[in-house]
Write a structure and sequence with these properties.
Length: 422
């Protein structure tokens, strides 16, 4: 599905470079002339937003590292010095801290868009798996970055989360000792987390390249979920989608800027403005908001090992999603039953996030267990059965027909839902 480049170098330097390293024609074919389904909506713009946010996080992170010392004696005061003494240090720090939240907001929308429109189905299984790997790397990077300011929530969050690995039979204690670099969360731990936090974004960038490569092999999915039938179903990526992505990025940056300039600490925790103290435990230890659904799943299981398995299983199940969903129809637009269960899943995920911020007591625990059970039932029971018993709505004959008839309704001349191949 890669675009055929029509690039013809005009200047002598361009001709010289094209003959020796045809990088301009490669970019032209993959990012300008690339054929893209003509019916993509604004949910498809979050891929470009995510690339922008990754670059922004790497740039702000590299500059912040120039002023940060990973030592428990000076880490907290060093971060405060960046805020007060470094030119525009406050802006860099708030861009980086809130950028992590924006990154996760965009990635959660991106994931749920994939779930709604069936973007994980054949032939996009590898594309989806690479996306889940990126998500895992993002979570690891975000967790380690949260430790670096060395405030109360940084210290105790690191202590609680790393201690979870001790539940692993046989090797658990050794893994925790390696993570700590000793027998408690201390200077060696901070150094390890700093090194990994600096390294992982570049690993994410590498997997993102593979993710985009896999996308350009299989081609974009689209809101109808049906294959591209002819050139009439597509438009070139530029100028149509570069313009659309640009508008979406500007809107997203306004949203991002609102947090950075007006409520920069809204998504953080006030205890992290208190220096880390191993002798004083916060009343309620919570991770960053983007980990809260998984934290709620962890706490919903009475057994420590069971909670760890459930928490990691909540992510691991996504790897098998292309094979758990047995329906041949991709888009929820034509799957009325699946559409209902999808929105229930969204509600459950939001509720789990809210429950993760609450104390593990009373009704919060009961609701957490109900939501955790539904989360796994959705993927392991409901999805396989829906593919067997659900009767989808008729699909349009082509993407162009869907566009001309106004989207994903039941246009005249629709055909019965066939197996999607493209």
């Amino acid at each position: 599905m890669s675009g055929h480049s029509t690039y013809e170098p005009k200047s002598a330097p361009a001709k010289w470079l094209e003959k020796r390293l045809p990088i301009i024609s490669l970019v032209h074919g993959q990012a300008i002339a690339f054929p893209t389904p003509k019916n993509l909506n604004y949910f498809w713009t979050f891929g470009g937003i995510l690339v922008f946010m990754l670059v922004a996080q790497i740039i702000t992170g590299v500059v912040l590292v120039m002023h940060y010392a990973p030592n428990t004696l000076v880490a907290f005061s060093g971060v405060e010095a960046i805020m007060r003494d470094v030119n525009y240090g406050w802006l860099l720090r708030y861009l980086h801290a809130n950028g992590a939240s924006m990154f996760f907001i965009a990635v959660y929308i991106h994931i749920f868009r994939g779930l709604y429109y069936g973007s994980y189905k054949e032939p996009r299984e590898v594309l989806w798996i690479l996306g889940v790997i990126i998500f895992l790397l993002m979570m690891a990077t975000g967790f380690m970055g949260y430790v670096l300011p060395w405030g109360q929530m940084s210290f105790w969050g690191a202590t609680v989360i790393t201690n979870l690995f001790s539940a692993i039979p046989i090797v658990g204690e050794s893994v925790v000792t390696w993570l700590w670099g000793g027998f408690s969360v201390d200077n060696a731990t901070l150094n390890r987390f700093f090194s990994l936090h600096y390294l992982l974004p570049f690993m994410i960038a590498g997997v993102v390249v593979l993710h985009i490569w896999a996308l350009h092999i299989a081609g974009n999915n689209n809101p109808t979920g049906i294959s591209v039938q002819s050139k009439q179903d597509t438009v070139t990526f530029h100028p149509y989608y570069t313009t659309k992505d640009g508008l979406a990025l500007v809107c997203f940056m306004i949203f991002f800027g609102w947090f950075v300039f007006y409520i920069p600490n809204y998504l953080g925790h006030p205890d992290n403005y208190v220096p880390a103290n191993p002798l004083v435990t916060p009343a309620h230890i919570v991770p960053e908001w983007y980990f809260l659904p998984f934290y709620a799943i962890l706490r919903s299981i009475p057994s420590k090992l069971g909670g760890v398995i459930a928490m990691f299983g909540a992510i691991a199940v996504l790897f098998f999603l292309p094979w758990l969903d047995t329906s041949k129809v991709r888009s929820a637009t034509f799957r009325p039953l699946y559409r209902t269960f999808f929105w229930i899943l969204v509600a459950v995920a939001v509720l789990l996030g809210w429950l993760g911020s609450k104390p593990p007591e009373g009704m919060y625990v009961i609701l957490g267990r109900i939501c955790t059970a539904y989360y796994f039932i959705h993927f392991l029971v409901i999805l396989p059965l829906l593919g067997l018993f659900e009767t989808p709505s008729p699909l349009p004959a082509s993407i162009s027909e869907s566009v001309l008839k106004g989207g994903g309704g039941r246009p005249a001349g629709s055909v019965a839902a066939p197996e999607s191949k493209g």
